[in-house]
Structures are given as structure tokens and as C-alpha cells.
């Protein structure tokens, strides 16, 4: 935990990492509390619309039953275990079970289409997937192309009561692999960021800072972000369980202000991680949410107007934080210690070394994190070339540009082609590849178009094959194609039919020219 401090300077000066020689996330977030305070509330289950408090003892028993089930099926240490479920007690138990048996959990988004699932499951050679009926139906037609996937487990269809509630956890070290989270595929196919057990410990200072020195008496955590993303899993769920702070599980298939208010009121939520788009929707609907102690936000910088609205409607200073799948929660604001600076993405979280390197005359350079941070990935899964390219000497490159000013880092822009839409980081290459598989498409370029509500929307510039009509029916068919093959949030909300695309002499699409065109269209 962060030390007690009244200033940021004291917080940083007094901080030191305490990474034990032997450490297992599953034991830390579950068994430790189940032994000390078995009746303590771990998860507040709101998935059925009514409150159901789940104790640490119950979570331990369920995760142990999962671990015994997996072991009986031959799943062993080092095996990759996909977790394809929305927020639920079973989702948390599935991850914990994987870690207890020494396996590697892989969060999967329940809105993934078949190609998104296939690419991730095949790339890592997943041995098992814990899912629900809807997820099992998605995976079923893919099984023939996934020879290493031996088991698709739907807990609701299994007599879990027949499995023991005792399980001897694996003796793991902090650098032993624990979590495989795939990136958004900004420069090609999504890459699997492999993290060791220490990744949770590495997250804690940033989570504590972004929630004004979490934990405090009465804290209850929730996020509308899916637990399949690092922001849901490691910024909220697992840090909450580590600290003994109840975490709310709720399903909002489509975010709306009224449902958000009901979850917060029904579960007594005091601490929320909101993606920027959720905050903008709350603001647009005039929704006030009294009673919150903290609100954290990450994904892209908020402006002065949004910060001012947060004070008025939420009664708190919105704490912005920064990181990425490969190395998360390394910059943060903390309203309890210092005032936010609009346009900045926070100050360096204690324990990390973050800098803007290789700056130009204006002070702009690459935002980078020095090796040695426990939150940093071990490597990209089976991709040593991409791993090597991620580093410049001792520095991990985020791919973002920034300026260091008075102890804050101001975000300037992305150095790659990532699209930030509604809090999701979307890689254009995967969408382009998907569209190119449609019979109507001859060529395509995908970029982000500025949007006041979602930061950006996905826009596709499409050259059609001869004989295909450039009409609304074709647009709808292409949108549906992406929705069904990838994920619902990745489909192009706008499609322009064009005769040509800007290309380099080597035949690569010049996306910066398309981004400039999209920005001009947005006005």
C-alpha cells in the first residue's frame, strides 16, 4: 500500500516496493481474506437486479471447486484458460481458480465475434474456456479450428457441488506467468501481453492514488467497464478484492445513466471507475450521482469542462490515470493530495519511472516507462520481435507522445494509429482485414473520426469491387459483417465509398491523410 502522506512529495519519498519471493494472486485476493474474515463481503452481486452479498469464504469455495474441476480434466500449471463471461461471481472465481492451479487466465470479452475469439484462442493455444451458454454457442463453430482447446466449461451446466471445496494452491513466484491480455491490434493482429503474478501488486499504488488513497472505511468499488479489459480486471476487481473492499458485479449490456444510478444506489457504491464516454453520457443526460467518494477515469484526457462538471454533478474531483495493457496505472491524479491539471494525464505513480524521452525543441517526445516496474509485462506471447520493438534501451515505449510540465505529463497524441472510441482502444488493421474478407470490398482504410460523445468513431473509407452498388444496403451489410466477426464496438459507424486511397510508394495506406480528411469532415 501507499504510505500515509499529506502531500504527493511525501507519498513518493516514503514509498518502497515490497514484492514477496513467493506470491500467488489467487491466494492474495481470496484465500487470505477467507482465512482471516470468512464472512467479509467480497462481491456484491447485482447481476439479477437485486443485491446478493458473496463472502470471501463462498468465493474461496467456488474457486476451489473450479480448480478441482479443471485439474480433473487435465488442465495443469502453465495452461491458458480463457474466461469468457460478463461481470459475475463465476468470472472472478474462474480467474482465481486458474491462478491457484498455476495456470494463465485469459480474459475474453463477451461481445467478441468469431474471428476475435479465434485469433486469441488459437494464438495462445488455450486448453480450456470457462464461459456461459451464450459464450459456448459462440465457440462451438470454432472448435474444429482450435485443436488445443479441449474443454469448454459452462458452470451452470455442471454439478459443481460434487467437487471439493479444498484445494492446495500452486507455489508461484511473482514473475511466474499469470495473466494473458490481448492488445487492440493497433499495428496488425492483437498481441498477447503476458503478465506475472506481480502485476496486481504493481497496480495497487496507481489504483489507491486514483481513488484518493483507497481503501477508506465504507468504500465499495464498481465499474461499468467489462472485467475482460485490464481496466475492469486489474484497476477495479482484483485490487478491491486484495484490499477487502467489496466489488460490485453488475451487467449493463448497454450503458445508460438510469441503470448506472440504480446500481450505485442499490449496492451503496462509493468508488467508481468510469470510462470517459460514460462520463459524457451522464453529463449529456443531466445525471447527478450524490454519495460517491471517488471517481477515477482513464482512456483519454478530460478537459476542464468535464472536470468542472464532475465537481458539480458528482461532488468529487475526477482523478484521471494513464497506462496501457503492457504497463498500466503508471500516471495518476489524486484530488486528496493535489489539484488536477486539465489536459494532463497525471503525475508519476510512486514506484514507477515514467518520462518523456527523445524530446524535440518544443519538449514533445515519447512517453516511456523504465524497465523494472512490477506492473510491466513479461513479454508479448510467442512474439520476441514485437517484444524487442516495444523497448528502446531501458525504456518501454507506450506509443504515445507527451510533454513533461511541472511534474505533470501532458498527453499530445498517439504515435500509432489506435482509435479511442467510447473508452475502447481499437486497432484499425483488424477491422480492415475483416472488411477485406467481404466480397464487396476491393480495398479499405480505417481511421478514427473525431466525435464529441465517443472521442472518436470508427470510419471506413472503402473502394468497392466492380458491380457493387455504393448504397445504404451495402453500408449496412459491411457494418453487420464487422459486428458479427469482431466485436460490436469495432464496427465502422460511418462508411464512405471512395475511388482511391492515399498510398505510399510501397503500397501502404497513408492513414494520417485519412485522419486529416476525417477531422475536416468532423468540422
From TrEMBL:
One of its GO terms (molecular function) is fatty acid ligase activity. Residues 31-381 form the AMP-dependent synthetase/ligase domain. One of its GO terms (biological process) is acyl-CoA metabolic process. Keywords: ATP-binding, Ligase, Nucleotide-binding. Pfam families: AMP-binding, AMP-binding_C. Residues 430-508 form the AMP-binding enzyme C-terminal domain. Its EC number is 6.2.1.1. PROSITE patterns: AMP_BINDING. Belongs to the ATP-dependent AMP-binding enzyme family. This is Acetyl-CoA synthetase. It comes from Rubricella aquisinus.
Amino acid at each position: 500500500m501507499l504510505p500515509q502522506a499529506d502531500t504527493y512529495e511525501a507519498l513518493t519519498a516514503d514509498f518502497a516496493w515490497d514484492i514477496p519471493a513467493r506470491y500467488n494472486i489467487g491466494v492474495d485476493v481470496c484465500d487470505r481474506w477467507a482465512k482471516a474474515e470468512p464472512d467479509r463481503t467480497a462481491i456484491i452481486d447485482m447481476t439479477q437486479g437485486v443485491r446478493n452479498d458473496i463472502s470471501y469464504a463462498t468465493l474461496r469455495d467456488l474457486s476451489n471447486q473450479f480448480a478441482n474441476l479443471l485439474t480433473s480434466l487435465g488442465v495443469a500449471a502453465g495452461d491458458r484458460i480463457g474466461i469468457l463471461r460478463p461481470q459475475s461471481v463465476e468470472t472472478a472465481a474462474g480467474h482465481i481458480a486458474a491462478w491457484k492451479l498455476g495456470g494463465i487466465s485469459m480474459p475474453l470479452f463477451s461481445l467478441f465475434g468469431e474471428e476475435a475469439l479465434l485469433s486469441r484462442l488459437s494464438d495462445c493455444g488455450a486448453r480450456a474456456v470457462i464461459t456461459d451458454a451464450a459464450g459456448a454457442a459462440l465457440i462451438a463453430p470454432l472448435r474444429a479450428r482450435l485443436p488445443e482447446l479441449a474443454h469448454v466449461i459452462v458452470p451452470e451446466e455442471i454439478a459443481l457441488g460434487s467437487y471439493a471445496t479444498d484445494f492446495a494452491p500452486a507455489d508461484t513466484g511473482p514473475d511466474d506467468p499469470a495473466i494473458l491480455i490481448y492488445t487492440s491490434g493497433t499495428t496488425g493482429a492483437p498481441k498477447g501481453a503476458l503478465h506475472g503474478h506481480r502485476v496486481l501488486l504493481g497496480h495497487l499504488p496507481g489504483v489507491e492514488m486514483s481513488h484518493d488513497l483507497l481503501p477508506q472505511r465504507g468504500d465499495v468499488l464498481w465499474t461499468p467497464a467489462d472485467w475482460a479489459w485490464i481496466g475492469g480486471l486489474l484497476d477495479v476487481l482484483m485490487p478491491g478484492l486484495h484490499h477487502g473492499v467489496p466489488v460490485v458485479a453488475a451487467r449493463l449490456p448497454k450503458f445508460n445513466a438510469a441503470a448506472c444510478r440504480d446500481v450505485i444506489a442499490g449496492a451503496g457504491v462509493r468508488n467508481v471507475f468510469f470510462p470517459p464516454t460514460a462520463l459524457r453520457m451522464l453529463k449529456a443526460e443531466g445525471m447527478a450521482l450524490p454519495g460517491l467518494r471517488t471517481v477515477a477515469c482513464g482512456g483519454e484526457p478530460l478537459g476542464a469542462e468535464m472536470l468542472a462538471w464532475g465537481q458539480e454533478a458528482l461532488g468529487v474531483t475526477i482523478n484521471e490515470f494513464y497506462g496501457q495493457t503492457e504497463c498500466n496505472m503508471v500516471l495518476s491524479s489524486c484530488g486528496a493530495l493535489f489539484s488536477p491539471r486539465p489536459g494532463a494525464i497525471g503525475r508519476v505513480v510512486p514506484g514507477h519511472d515514467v518520462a518523456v524521452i527523445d524530446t524535440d525543441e518544443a519538449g514533445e517526445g515519447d512517453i516511456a516507462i523504465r524497465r523494472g516496474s512490477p506492473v510491466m509485462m513479461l513479454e508479448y506471447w510467442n512474439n520476441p520481435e514485437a517484444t524487442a520493438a516495444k523497448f528502446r534501451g531501458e525504456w518501454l515505449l507506450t506509443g504515445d507522445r507527451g510533454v513533461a510540465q511541472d511534474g505533470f505529463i501532458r498527453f499530445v497524441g498517439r504515435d500509432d494509429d489506435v482509435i479511442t472510441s467510447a473508452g475502447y482502444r481499437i486497432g484499425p488493421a483488424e477491422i480492415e482485414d475483416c472488411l477485406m474478407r467481404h466480397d464487396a470490398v476491393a480495398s479499405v482504410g480505417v481511421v478514427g473520426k473525431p466525435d464529441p460523445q465517443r472521442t472518436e468513431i470508427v470510419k471506413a473509407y472503402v473502394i468497392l469491387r466492380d458491380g457493387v452498388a455504393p448504397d445504404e444496403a451495402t453500408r449496412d451489410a459491411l457494418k453487420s459483417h464487422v459486428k458479427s466477426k469482431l466485436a460490436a464496438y469495432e464496427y465502422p459507424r460511418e462508411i464512405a465509398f471512395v475511388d482511391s486511397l492515399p498510398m505510399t510508394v510501397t503500397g501502404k495506406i497513408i492513414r494520417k491523410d485519412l485522419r486529416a480528411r476525417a477531422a475536416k469532415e468532423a468540422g
